[in-house]
Amino acid sequence: MSPAADNSSAMDDGPLVEDFGQRIGRAMGWPPMAGRLAGVLMLSPAPMTLSELQATLGASKGSASEMTRLLIANGTVERVKVPGVRQAGYVWRDDAWSGCLQHQLHQTEQLLELARTARERGLGMPEAQQARLRDMYTYYDFMVGQLRRLLDEYQQLHAG
Amino acid sequence: MSPAADNSSAMDDGPLVEDFGQRIGRAMGWPPMAGRLAGVLMLSPAPMTLSELQATLGASKGSASEMTRLLIANGTVERVKVPGVRQAGYVWRDDAWSGCLQHQLHQTEQLLELARTARERGLGMPEAQQARLRDMYTYYDFMVGQLRRLLDEYQQLHAG
DNA sequence: AGGAAAGTTCAGTCAAGACTGAATATTCAT
DNA sequence: ATGAATATTCAGTCTTGACTGAACTTTCCT
After folding, report:
1. D19 C1' to B65 CA distance, Å
2. What is the mean pLDDT of residues B67-89?
């Protein structure tokens, strides 16, 4: 956090952070800046304030704020407040990856929902087409069930 | 295919196809047009030619061509050729969804690779940061393993 | 072989969406 | 309560990437 935050040890993770940014960001469907932010926070030894993040990323205040909120919403970052210190700190969560998995599950659930309505709307169609829609439903149904299981399993492993 | 392809039964799946397009396309990281194409082919009773697709989608020739190739590369669509007929037909594959899962696995493998190099590059860092990079590696390692398993399992179920 | 139909490529145009920054709202030490 | 520090919002700008269409290459019937 502000007073003691000497990030000298993190010097020149730049390229690494950029890679993270581009690739994880894209994989998660985030804007690039969110990925870079994730990279920075993942490698920061201490919580960072908004303005430190802004400076490190070379981003605007608005961007830093919005991307931070996005990562919080996705469960990878946590906001910590120290009483007596005005500005909040942001940290990479220990259970960040379980948050990612949860996110993936959620997305898949949306598609299952889509498949369900599609199957219903397809009831008047010839059998061949209905079969296609049924396949889709079956697939997403399978995936949702399995991802739920994976999430459980991962959380078990990670609790110990 | 051309001569017999009377798509009248498919009339006004339009909205459904649009939904598919927007949502599946996005989920898979495809351009919207690829998603719409997937929707059209999934609901088509017979193989469709490039120009039929172009007309149905209201797209350009170039777009129809490139999006078709993209779906083929992703394993959801197949190109069928009938000798004596010049133009090729395009069909939604029966094992399309297993192709999607394969794609997801492949993407995750890329991230595992990223995590692996990150972990190596982080060897000089303080323990706390190394732990973060190890977590990331552990996560993707877990996911790759599990997705491989899921792919197997899904293919089993779908063979019968 | 010849050439017309089919398919691909890619430079250019256009639209979606990421980022900025200044205006606005909120917070909290005093 | 007050106001200075902190954070959010959003209209406008700029970047990225999707789509078009015409020029080019390939295919394969005759």
Report:
1. 12
2. 94
